[in-house]
Amino acid sequence: MLVLLAFIIAFHITSAALLFIATIDNAWWVGDEFFADVWRICTNNTNCTVINDSFQEYSTLQAVQATMILSTILCCIAFFIFVLQLFRLKQGERFVLTSIIQLMACLCVMIAASIYTDRQ
């Protein structure tokens, strides 16, 4: 049982780290002379433009930004609730709330990836 709990803790920490990296990383879309992510578009590795409300053609990227941030927050909340439930639940009870929140985080990532893939 301790091995299973160790794997679940490792899963939560790994998924949170990967979500932070995927949200912050600037290499979602890399070409010959440019790279782009959900925060900015860079050409010639020097001319970077931040994506904000002035870019109407990139307005869907704000939905990707929001869902990626939401998924990262939900993943961190799920880990926090898991740790709380680990010490508060009676032996044999299940971590239903943690799993529901983690599944919502996964759904947010899938929505963000779907929007980004469709628009780019």
Draw up the topology in text.
Layout: H1 2-24, E1 29-30, E2 34-36, E3 40-43, E4 47-50, H2 60-88, H3 96-119
- Total helices: the number is 3
Structural class by secondary-structure content: alpha+beta
| N-to-C CA distance | 44 Å
Q: Into which percent range does the helicity of residues fall? A: 55-70%
Q: Beta-sheet strand percentage?
A: 5-15%
In round numbers, the mean pLDDT is 82
Could you name the ranges where pLDDT drops below 50 across 5 or more consecutive residues? none
How does the overall form come out from the CA principal axes? elongated
Radius of gyration, in Å, reads: 18 Å
Total number of beta strands = 4
For the record, the count of structural domains works out to 1
Main sheet strand line-up: 1-2-3-4
Largest sheet geometry: 4 strands, antiparallel
Sketch the topology as an H/E string, one letter per element. Answer: HEEEEHH
Give a structural overview.
The chain starts with a helix and ends with a helix. The protein has 120 residues and is of the alpha+beta class. A hairpin with a 3-residue loop joins strand 1 (29-30) and strand 2. It contains 3 helices and 4 strands. The mean pLDDT is 82. It has a 4-stranded antiparallel β-sheet, with no helix packed on it.
Short recap of the structure:
With 120 residues, this protein is of the alpha+beta class.
